[in-house]
TrEMBL record:
<keyword id="KW-0479">Metal-binding</keyword>
<feature type="binding site">
    <location>
        <position position="179"/>
    </location>
    <ligand>
        <name>Mg(2+)</name>
    </ligand>
</feature>
<dbReference type="InterPro" id="IPR005493">
    <property type="entry name" value="RraA/RraA-like"/>
</dbReference>
<dbReference type="GO" id="GO:0046872">
    <property type="term" value="F:metal ion binding"/>
</dbReference>
<keyword id="KW-0460">Magnesium</keyword>
<dbReference type="InterPro" id="IPR036704">
    <property type="entry name" value="RraA/RraA-like_sf"/>
</dbReference>
<feature type="binding site">
    <location>
        <begin position="156"/>
        <end position="159"/>
    </location>
    <ligand>
        <name>substrate</name>
    </ligand>
</feature>
<dbReference type="Pfam" id="PF03737">
    <property type="entry name" value="RraA-like"/>
</dbReference>
<feature type="binding site">
    <location>
        <position position="178"/>
    </location>
    <ligand>
        <name>substrate</name>
    </ligand>
</feature>
<protein>
    <submittedName>
        <fullName>RraA family protein</fullName>
    </submittedName>
</protein>
Amino acid sequence: MKNFKIVLVLFCLTYHFQGDAQGVTGSVEYIKELTSQWKGERFDDGRPKVTDALLSRMKNIQIEEAWGFLRSRGYNNQYEGEWEIIHPEGVMTGRVVTAQYMPLRPDYQRLIKLKGAEEKRDTIGGSNSWPIQQLVPGDVYVADGYGRIIDGTLIGSNLGNAIYANSQNGVIFNGGVRDVAGLLDIEGFNGWHKGADPSYLQEEMLSAINVPIRIGRATVLPGDVVLANRHGTIFIPSYLASELVLSSEIVGLRDIFGFQRLREKKYTAGQIDTKWTDEINKDFENWLKSYPDSKLPMTRKELNDYMDSRKN
């Protein structure tokens, strides 16, 4: 009986370590744990599947509005600025695929290659192509290259074309890029990076895909939604994306209403620029009822449900 118990314990330990064996890519179960507050549809890799329609609407949201909303929910470390942008006039939104890079260490790199082979990845070329292989339309490739630019260029025009072919989107790199002239020629592609250099990627290795990473002063999880424009990048937990967009759109409607009433001289600037009275709130609610559906950024049902929730 004693020997049986010892064998059973050893079996359980072996099963535990095999079951928890770490690969290059975060497992489906791990990503679901990281994003447990998301209740909607998911991709096969476990990431939340925020809708394309919501991503499109998010392009109209100002960084400051998103920043303020997240801080009101306790998310104080989701913004990063000071970027070089391939197309500064562009706005990009998407679902995040993360990648972590580190200074090269030979023994660790050998293990990463072995783990990559187990995941059926191409071990002949550079591992910086691995995250690109799992991009799907609407994804944004977000990589922490620890700010390295010289010999830290994570992509050039070849990989840029591959990224756009898979995602129809772009990249956000806490690191460098090369061949900016070639990247500029990829129609629809955009990128936020820390600098450009003609050097190739050297003495740097991929260590993980779809795990939590740090981008400057922001903590980023796989499946986050990113909003990027000339004013910076902000990473939004997937479960808050819909509420953030809707509340920001309501702020936009309040601005339209306020500007109209100021032009009409119905209220003073002081009345509009401070906490609204019950009279102004009621006027705004009536104004919304007559506002054309075709001009609403959301559906009429979404608007009504939001306004009703504010009354409760």
